[in-house]
Write the structure tokens for this entry.
Amino acid sequence: MKLKYLLPVFFLLLPFIDSNPYHMDVFTTAALYALLALGLNLIVGFVGLLHLGYAAFFAIGAYTYALLNLRLGYPFWVGLPISAVTAGIAGVLLGLPAVRVRGDYLAIVTLGFGEIVRIAVTNCERWTGGPNGLLGIAHPTIGSFNFGVDSRPYYWLLFILVEATAWVCARLRRSRIGLAWGALREDELAARCIGVDATRLKLLALGLGGAIAGLAGCVFAAKQGTVTPDSFDFILSVMILAMVILGGLGSVRGAILGAAVLSIAPELLRSFSSYRMLLFGVMMIVLMRVRPQGLLGRRHVAP
Amino acid sequence: MSLLKIEDLTKHFGGVVALDRVSFSVKRQTIVSLIGPNGAGKTTLFNCVTGVLRPEEGSIFFGDGAAADSLAGCPPHQVAEFGIARTFQNIRLFAGMSVLENVLAGTYVRTRAGLLEALWPWKSGAHQEKRWAHDKAHRLLEQLQLGRCADQLASSLPYGQQRRLELARALASDPQLLLLDEPAAGLTFQERQELMKFLMELKGRGLTILLIEHDMKVVMPISDWVVVLDYGAKIAEGPPKEIQGNPHVIEAYLGVKTAQ
């Protein structure tokens, strides 16, 4: 399909097509959400683990870079992989007790983790600055070029990360591991009986999903220059989940589209001022009613 | 030579004794049927063998003589690796995946590609492995007359084909022992005849089959051996002819003492 090649080119050139800094800022946020949605889609869409604490991994990635930079002076490009690995390890560690429970119970357990991480960050003042957060985190640099406060370099960086992550996700889904994930999602007992080690494969997904959120968190911290615990609340986890579901569970392109729609729509609705969130809510209800499998989801919704 | 040896297998659910010191063995390349009234413990026995349930007592050995592996305490995915595949009483397909994907998933234990192989974009061993799995899956689908619906969703198939797909998925793991839980349930007369023919063919190819089945018209002609359970205990075993006339079996099924 032509669109497959045209769309990335369009997104790559977007900062030249639309140079409005406010628009660029919205697009950059959308790209950040797209990265998060891809990561959560791997957990919820591919493996069917309803994770309600995904923002925790985003927070771990952000604070990892913030601390590495402020305490040890590590540059962004070193912090980026370390943030991903740290968040990935957190994903596995938090997953160890969580994969023992299923369905609704898993949702509650992960919700708990999300809150624990946020509250721990708030209370661990010595390290994290508590509710005031951490200030003065360095922006990324390439040679003598500093990313600074302009959105465009972050947009391009996120563009590369989203493209790479989408490629990895699409490839994984078609692989042997992707099939095993699908089997676990559809029928865990039958999957185990054909030889799928459920615990290992779930932890793998949680680790990878966590690592992707870690990447996003690191870029977020570097762009903002500050991190505060209130950036990583429960609503963020829910928003990312809504993007994944709206786009179509398990669909890689759907996750990106869902992220774009849900981060740009509230901005478009700004002219309705106080009715904005109401309209936003109605829009989501209608969409889910008309297209329960999500915008790009083709598969039936499991009963 | 026995392929599967079950000794004193006991399983309780609360106060209910689901399996009560059941012992029997399954010889290589035979079809053994497990029969008994509803609630006799047949499916529980399957679940214990495949590692879904953990029996309280007893042992399960898989393999020949001294080289046999003990299955007690093995999780299901390890049991599958040993070469035991199963189907379920109430069909458990991967409903949201295509027919082909269901069978491909069945090859999971016979393939090895991990994370890095999945991401490696150039030709590699994983590539060949994938082709091998696809060829195998297509072959199995052809054998079970599902070739034409390879790309359909598994849940969209009619009942009889779903049963066949579950069988194809089980066979995709190259099992030595196949556990079939009421494979003929709900099938038409025609479909039953085909199933029986296919099971005989599998036996001819060297497979060993342990079968739970209620329909004696299926059990009797194809079984080499029949094991009868009632209230969790083995009440009889023997060749089909012998079992048919066994007063204990008739009593268990009809609930009355036979007149003479």
User: Anything to note?
Assistant: Strands of chain B lie at 2-13, 16-27, 31-35, 57-62, 69-70, 84-86, 177-181, 208-212, 225-230, 233-238.
